[in-house]
Amino acid sequence: MDQRLPFGAHHLAHEGSARGPGVRVDDPINLVLPEGSLMPASESGRGGRGGEPQHFGPTEEQLNTYLNSVKDQVRGKIVLVGKAAFVPVNLAPPPGRRSDDDLKRQYDPNAPEGTGRGGPGGGGRGTPPAGPPGTLTVRQVDQRVDEFLVANGAAGRVNDAGRALGELIENHNRTYDVSKTVPTVVIRNEDYGRIARILADGTPVELEMNIVNTWYPDGKTAYNTIAEIAGSDKKDEVVMLGGHLDSWHVATGATDNAIGCATMMEAARILKAIGVKPRRTIRVACWSGEEEGLLGSLAYVQQHFGSAEHPKPEFAKLDAYLNIDSGTGRARGAGVFGPPEAAAIVRQALAPFQDLGVVGASATRSRNVGGTDSTSFNNAGLPGIGFGQDPIEYGSHTHHTNLDHYERIIEADVKTSAISIAATLYQLAMRDEMVPRFTKETMPPPAPARTGSQ
């Protein structure tokens, strides 16, 4: 079955032979935006990757002064926004697998609660450091530049992907309103840098953009896809597992997160294939709208369960929700929202799989929303279980990039993940008691739901 949820207007970007009204411009211009004060080394991370010093954003006054000085130059032009990013050669690439010692520290039940997807914090990918008072964030600068380009009749915008070796990072119109931005493309850092250098030299450049989109202004419904294996004597209680099926248009979303959905479907299939008759109902969810702010899982939790503060009848019947969403790497451990006793149950279920690299489980009290769909359940006060994985090339290469294709999947890792998750699912579906929860007195305070893309 599927579940509908309100969404926003939708557009589809096509690639191929389809042609539409393109734009061809001589002498594009490069807006070299003003920068704010220098970030402290500990916040910018400069030196660790050999990069240039990083700056906070400009103030509103600094940005407006600069934009006013160039507004007569942008009409009818394709505009390169920002100086070319310096992406240093990475002489020390991150390891593809995490060490057992590192993971044992993370999943040590006696260690202080930490942060990180699948681990104790179960949160997102971090936020940039706050700038001095009065400075604009990267997103605020981006919004002001879009408004400026629309108001002054620019023909198009070009962004630097800012990644090495031809990687393209996803780009989208955060307003979902085509009247609030000019046509925008993202190009390889190597191409952007070359064009910017040629322009700075005074050599003429000609750019041609051909963007063919289909806009669906009435497309305001997205769908969660849900399937069940019916339970028996405890069929009114449910163990859920899932991942998000939506992905960015820059590639096919194989590692983010089609493989997560496939892993969870395989875990359920394993139990079905060996003839398991679960006591509790097993429900698999392939979420939609995760990349726009966990929309599918948040809507599902709200509609079916409510929250600890405002529970619906089904709230008491959800045993746990299992989630995986960090690429192709094998599952190495789990972060569990709940008291230490909840993590102990998951740790015991995973213990037989040490030979597959599974280390353990740890508890978290965080109800913050962000990063992945298990936090939608945590936010409601429900037992969300997020699996941590070997990074492989996820953060460095495939996450939200043009490289996120099937060819980046490691089949052996996915199989081991499905096996350990299937075993955990079996234990939770068959136990006499449900996974322990925080009581009303020990429940951490709620955190506001985060919006915006993941």
Would you mind describing this structure in some detail?
The protein is built from eleven helices and 16 strands. With 454 residues, it is α/β, with parallel strands linked by helices. The protein folds into two domains: 11-91 and 128-214, Glucose Oxidase, domain 1 (3-Layer(bba) Sandwich); 100-126 and 219-430, Zn peptidases (Aminopeptidase). The strands form four sheets. An eight-stranded mixed sheet has the order 1-10-12-11-13-16-14-15, sandwiched between helices. Strands 4-5-6-7 form a four-stranded parallel sheet, covered by helices on one side. Strands 2-9 form a two-stranded antiparallel ribbon. Strand 11 (234-244), helix 6 and strand 12 form a beta-alpha-beta unit. Helix 6 crosses helix 11 (411-430) and helix 7 packs parallel to helix 9 (374-380). The longest helix has 20 residues, at 254-273. The radius of gyration is 24 Å and the shape is elongated. It starts with a strand and ends in a 24-residue tail after the last helix.
